[in-house]
Amino acid sequence: ETGVTQSPTHLIKTRGQQVTLRCSSQSGHNTVSWYQQALGQGPQFIFQYYREEENGRGNFPPRFSGLQFPNYSSELNVNALELDDSALYLCASSLARVNTDTQYFGPGTRLTVL
Amino acid sequence: AQSVTQLGSHVSVSEGALVLLRCNYSSSVPPYLFWYVQYPNQGLQLLLKYTSAATLVKGINGFEAEFKKSETSFHLTKPSAHMSDAAEYFCAVTSGSARQLTFGSGTQLTVLP
Prior knowledge:
The complex is a heterodimer of chains A (114) and B (113). Chain A is mainly β. In chain A, 0% of the residues lie in helices and 50% in strands. In chain A, strands 2, 4, 5, 6, 9, 10 and 11 form a seven-stranded mixed sheet that branches. In chain A, strands 1-3-8-7 form a four-stranded antiparallel sheet, with no helix packed on it. In chain B, strands 2, 4, 5, 9, 10 and 11 form a six-stranded mixed sheet that branches. A five-stranded antiparallel sheet of chain B has the order 1-3-8-7-6, with no helix packed on it. In chain B, a hairpin with a 5-residue loop joins strand 4 and strand 5. Chain B has 113 residues and is mainly beta. Chain B is globular. Chains A and B meet through strand 5, strand 6 and strand 10 of A and strand 5, strand 9 and strand 10 of B.
């Protein structure tokens, strides 16, 4: 069974640029959630995709957008990058949208905005 | 909104000593609670979860947590710390329409030789 994978591992961008982060969910999982973890803080929920539809969104501006594909992999896109977007971006997959379902996390993508 | 509070951003214990990491939750409905561990430069790994079955939950690597409704707590314990337990630990609760995880601010555990 393949776990959650993310690419790239590290990324450096400059202010104003756009970035796309990718996530492959664990085999059989149809739900993907994205989290932002700033240095020294706990992860914060960005949004969730279930069967290719956005299923919920945290307190992030519209320049954070996403997609989920038929194979349940997902992308996180961030436009007009700001310095505060520098963080570890974590993707998590789960089998269903239930409270008790475990979310399995990938290793993350470290984004640095200069 | 459901939330969790982790008391103590840094905890140091000696190798072989008891580990106690504190987590209190705020919830108007029965919560579903999780503990995750994060090693340096890695993602999050699930240690254990509470889903309203047994109040004492056993997890991986010898960790366990007890759900105490009267104290609104879900503290993580391990009888004997190992050097390999040094990491950051996050308590989390599911909330919202997407059942997303809401995390505490984390506790950095240091294990002293």
